[in-house]
Design goal:
Layout lengths: L1 E10 L5 H12 L2 E6 L5 E7 L1 H13 L5 E10 L7 E3 L1
Parallel strand pairs: 2-5
Antiparallel strand pairs: 1-3, 1-4, 2-3
């Protein structure tokens, strides 16, 4: 299992980024959460098999069609074996 904390910067609020991330995570079988931050970035935690997490991270680096990702910061965390994915 792999668990990561992610901060995505760019045009990532108001473009469906969080909801699209939830769909990408659910399709990949990844659990965790995603939320907007006051500074205009999006923050998430993802947990799943390494290949599944990597697939969602690759999607997050591109984002939805209306967005524009400038940077993605990823930090590994201890696993918790969480279940489900939520938009906060």
């Amino acid at each position: 299992m792999r668990r990561v904390h992610v901060v995505v910067r760019g045009l990532v609020q108001g473009v469906g980024y969080r909801w699209s991330t939830r769909i990408a995570a659910e399709q990949a079988g990844v659990s965790g959460w995603v939320r907007n931050r006051a500074d205009g970035s999006v923050e998430a935690e993802l947990e799943g098999e390494p290949a599944q997490v990597d697939a969602v991270l690759a999607w997050m680096a591109e984002g939805p069609p209306g967005g524009q990702v400038e940077s993605v910061d990823v930090r590994d965390l201890a696993t918790t074996e969480s279940h489900g994915f939520t938009v906060r």
